[in-house]
Amino acid sequence: MKIGIRFKLVFFISVLLLFVIALLSFLVLNGIKIYQNKEAEGILLNQKDMFEQYLDENFSLNNANTNEKFELVRATIFNKPWLRTIPANIYDTKGNLLSGFKPEGKLNENPQKNIMIKNALQDKISYKYDKNIIYFYSPIKYKNNTAAILELQYSTEESNKFYNNIKFLFYYTGSLSLIIGIILGYLYLSNFTKAIYIMKNSIKNIQTKNFYAVKELVRKDELGELSKGLIYMSNTIEKSIKDLETEKDTLSKAVKKLKQMDRQQKDFIGNVSHEFKTPITSIKAYADVMNMYSNDLTLISNGTESISKECDRLTNMVDKILKLSSLDKYDFEIEKNIINIKDLIEQICSRMSGKVKKNKLALNYHVDNLNILSDSESLRHIIINLIDNAVKYNTPGGNINIVCHQQDKLLKIDVEDTGIGMSQEHLSKIFEPFYRAAIHRSSKVGGAGLGLALVENMVKKLQGTISVNSTLGKGTTFSIKLPIYDYHNNLSEPNCLQNTNK
């Protein structure tokens, strides 16, 4: 059977109150009784001293013999008012009654009188407490010799009544105090244990993750502090659980992402192997033919040129694969600095002009004189790849247009060509590694399908976005948007781009 803390505390308080009241009553009543007995003994000793004084005075003044003196004293001793306050008997040294006094008649008979007289003859004072009477026996001295034995019978009836009244008062007030104390203790402890039960329920709510049901006690004591501690613990546990759930969700997403990356990696390796196989097979075929027809100089010349192109294609593909792989692995290689976008694009266009002219194309650009905080090498690779892509998939006499300007707080770069274009079904997959929108878009020009995947990764590394808009037979436009930073104030916060045009 489970006993609650409320019952235990009330029971303890009740027992403690009962013990304290009983102990206090015992000590006070015992003290009163001791005081009464000492007071009575003092009165009796004082009375005995007055008898000795009277006997000494009368024996000294009277020249009669001892028997005559005793007869005289016996006849006159109780005539003195101060010796008649307490009932008394006087005995000689043989235990014979010489004289006595009691207002109502004879003195009460003490069953131990003879023993107490013998003790008095041995110079001992004896007391015997019997109900409402104290029997007192003492020798009366004359010149250091026992001349007689004094018996006093002191009534304790009044003092016993007083003691009994006090005793009753203690029992009554003690019982009343005990009852009131138990009631008040029960009421107080009920309020006290109620707070404990509330905290107990709060702990259960914490155990069941019902954190909103945890209540705070408004108290200015240790229980209030304990309640605040429970609230703090509840909030901490709740936050920890949420953090764990968030971490679990993050880890779950990370595992999913890793699985996806693993699958993409396997696809990537398979695609790379396939792409490497095609030019290698072509090179081997040309080598075999050249070996078979070693005297055909025209065939050898054409074969050598084809092998050279295939080698260039392999070299280009390896460079792009290495670049794409490094972007996946090393984030810290991005080094941002202040770039004048007009100067950068002019340099790139100058570098690409030979290839553009060779393919009978026109390269036009319109660029605002703007500054941006970015990685110059990555930005250079992005624009070169887009121009190279525009050259590859353009038509003779076509145009390549580059437009760069500020759009809100972003730098927008558009690379447009008037080439063969793409159908809408291929636009969502154009940035996947090795994806070919159409056979003639890649195999005809020897493309590996890695350039746009590389561009997209670089743009993401620069915290930008890239989009494509294309119409089959009319051309394609790639649009890049990059964030612009105020390099005069805070390089880590996006702000308006600075236009250096005067």
Automatic annotation (TrEMBL):
It holds the Pfam family HATPase_c. One of its GO terms (cellular component) is membrane raft. It comes from the Bacteria. Keywords: ATP-binding, Cell membrane, Coiled coil, Kinase, Membrane, Nucleotide-binding, Phosphoprotein, Transferase, Transmembrane, Transmembrane helix, Two-component regulatory system. It is an enzyme of class 2 (transferase). It is found in: Cell membrane; Membrane raft. It is a multi-pass membrane protein. InterPro entries: BphY/WalK/GraS-like, HATPase_C_sf, HATPase_dom, His_kinase_dom, HisK_dim/P_dom, HisK_dim/P_sf, Sig_transdc_His_kin-like_C. The chain crosses the membrane at residues 9-29, 169-189. It catalyses: ATP + protein L-histidine = ADP + protein N-phospho-L-histidine. One of its GO terms (biological process) is cellular response to phosphate starvation. Signal peptide: none annotated. Residues 271-486 form the Histidine kinase domain. Residues 234-264 form a coiled coil. GO terms for molecular function: ATP binding; phosphoprotein phosphatase activity; phosphorelay sensor kinase activity. Its EC number is 2.7.13.3. This is histidine kinase. The lineage of its organism: Bacteria, Bacillati, Bacillota, Clostridia, Eubacteriales. The gene is resE7.
